Every structure is written in C-alpha cells, then in structure tokens.
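Quick one, probably user error.
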C-alpha cells in the first residue's frame, strides 16, 4: 500500500462553479518533492491540509474533517474503463492517489501512517458536487458517481508531517465497528435508512454526517 502521487491545485476561474469568486481548485496536479500536511482549522475558515493546495469553496470543502481527500488508483482505473478515456492521477480532485489500499472499505476512524510521521484518520466519503461533474464534462455525473458509491475518503490530520509520492501507507488503527466509508456514504445519500447504523462510528464520523444521523434517529427511531 502506498501513495502514488500527492496532488495539489491552484485556483482557476471557470464558468461552471458557484463559488463566490468563480474559481475552483479541483484541477489537482502531482507535486514534486515533499508536501507538508497539517490540520487546516475549522470548516468555513480552514482550507486544505496540504501546503500549496487551494480550496476555493470553504462553505463545502476543506477544514479539519476534510483536510485530505484520498482516492484509489484502482477506482480511477474503473472509471477509465467506464468512461472510455484516460484519467490521470489528481483528476478527481484527490490529494492522495493511492494503490493497494481499499479506500472505500476503510472504516470510519481508521488511521493511516504515511511516510515517517504523518497520521491521518478517516472521517467520511466525498459528496460529489456540480463543479465535479462540470469539470469532468460528463452528463449526469453526480448521479452516476453517487450510485456507484465508491467515493474515496476524507481524512483529518492526527499527526502532521511531510509526505511525497511513493510513501508507504500503514494502517495503524482499525476501529471495532463495521462502519465503512462506503456504508457512511450510502447512508448520507441514497439509503437514509442506514443512518442509525453509522452511529456506531461515534465521534470519528464527520460531524455533519453524525448530526444528520442523530437527527434521523430522533425523528424516526433506530
């Protein structure tokens, strides 16, 4: 298990985003050399956890619980076959393109050590947005990506550190529950009846999804 590339993006003006300034940083490109990763601070104020990576829409992206976004090369390969064209590392807006790591079956609260010192903790799956679909130029993309339910993982920074392409990934903590990235994503999108099940992940779950699950249980019961 390792990181194939560490990807960062710069703000670019586009016509298809609804960010306040009309820019997006979704076009991530592989970085050369080491990249420092730290906790960026609360959502709404903090952006990306990666130095040199720009988050343009702080309303929906970035912050402590979405500091880093990881997507598996194996899943990019799947979409290459489905869409019929090459997809480079970083094209899905991911910060880390991994190989050999089952990102979508990672458990919420699972911790990864990458390189010598960085430790990340899985919080949730990525919810696709209109900018993502427009960037790829695929009609109906948000619905198609959601239906496939392999969203990649958002992570928080537990211990900061530098990472670079080729760094090994070691799973250093696996929680005892069964709430995976894929399960949490389905609960939050297409299968709301699963929301009570994801409460087993506790405070490791992205706080917005945790609040949604608690509200559902209060209204409908477990």
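Nope, works fine. Designed sequence:
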């Amino acid at each position: 298990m390792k990181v194939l590339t560490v990807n960062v993006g710069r703000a670019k003006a586009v016509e298809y985003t609804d960010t306040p300034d009309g820019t997006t940083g979704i076009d991530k490109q592989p970085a050369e050399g080491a990249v420092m990763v730290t906790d960026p601070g609360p959502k709404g104020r903090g952006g990306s956890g990666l130095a040199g990576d720009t988050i343009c829409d702080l309303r929906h992206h970035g912050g402590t619980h979405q500091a880093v976004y990881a997507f598996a090369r194996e899943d990019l390969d799947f979409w290459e076959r489905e869409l019929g064209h090459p997809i480079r590392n970083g094209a899905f807006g991911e910060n880390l393109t991994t190989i050999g790591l089952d990102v979508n079956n990672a458990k919420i609260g699972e911790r990864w050590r990458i390189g010598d010192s960085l430790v990340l903790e899985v919080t949730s799956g990525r919810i696709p947005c209109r900018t993502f679909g427009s960037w790829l130029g695929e009609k109906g993309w948000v619905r198609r990506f959601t239906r496939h339910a392999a969203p990649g993982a958002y992570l928080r920074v537990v211990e900061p550190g530098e990472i670079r392409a080729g760094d090994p990934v070691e799973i250093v903590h696996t929680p005892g529950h069964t709430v995976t990235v894929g399960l949490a994503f389905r609960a939050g999108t297409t299968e709301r009846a699963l929301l009570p099940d994801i409460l087993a992940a506790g405070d490791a779950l992205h706080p917005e999804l945790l609040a949604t699950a608690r509200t559902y249980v209060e209204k409908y019961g477990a």
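Residues 207-220 form the longest helix (14 residues).
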